[in-house]
């Protein structure tokens, strides 16, 4: 179909890509077109549609993701009032993201804006559960350390393991509630209720 856009004739070609990542398809198509198609003078080729939106979102996410992690770090610091404790909580974030990347790979999902937003949410959830665990373990470790110095009877590691065991059930309940709430979104294929 030939249309008029900005005072110029435009021919649109639509492609529906279902079985692979849109960005990968467009990059392959751009390379193939550049090798095989020679445009006459006065003609131009533009890649638009969802790909253009994806590129814009990718540019924004390159700024938003580090900014979000910095904001989480600052908020944790104001909450915990300790740089080492904040670093301890933040060190857990990359390990949870590694698990998310593996799951995306195992389920053969394409990286999209929704996946990146989910990873940002996962980083927030990880920081939250790490903070809860740290705040619960701090008094246990402190009292065990004092008792260990005074009596030498209680091992600090044993007190920390015991404190962590008491916190597992509430953490698992929180994580399972979030996971089960998000399963319909993870396996849904359409927008809105189906």
CATH first level of the largest domain: which class?
Mainly Alpha
- Please give the number of β-strands: 2
Q: What structural class results from the helix and strand content? A: mainly alpha
Q: Tell me, briefly, the overall form.
A: elongated
State the end-to-end CA separation: 34 Å
- Biggest sheet statistics: 2 strands, antiparallel
β-sheet strand percentage:
under 5%
**Uncertain runs with pLDDT below 50, 5 residues or more?**
none
Tell me the Rg in angstroms: 25 Å
- Per CATH, the architecture of the largest domain is Up-down Bundle
Describe the fold and architecture:
- The protein has 194 residues and is mainly alpha-helical.
- It folds into 2 domains: 1-48, no CATH class; 53-187, Multidrug efflux transporter AcrB transmembrane domain (Multidrug efflux transporter AcrB transmembrane fold, Up-down Bundle), CATH 1.20.1640.10.
- The protein is 73% helix and 4% strand.
- It has 5 helices and 2 strands.
- The chain has helices at 22-36, 50-80, 83-106, 113-151, 156-187; strands spanning 2-5, 8-11.
- It has a two-stranded antiparallel ribbon.
- Strand 1 and strand 2 (8-11) form a beta hairpin.
- Helix 2 runs antiparallel to helix 3 and helix 2 (50-80) packs parallel to helix 4 (113-151).
- The radius of gyration is 25 Å and the shape is elongated.
- 6% of the residues are buried.
- The model has no long low-confidence stretch (mean pLDDT 78).
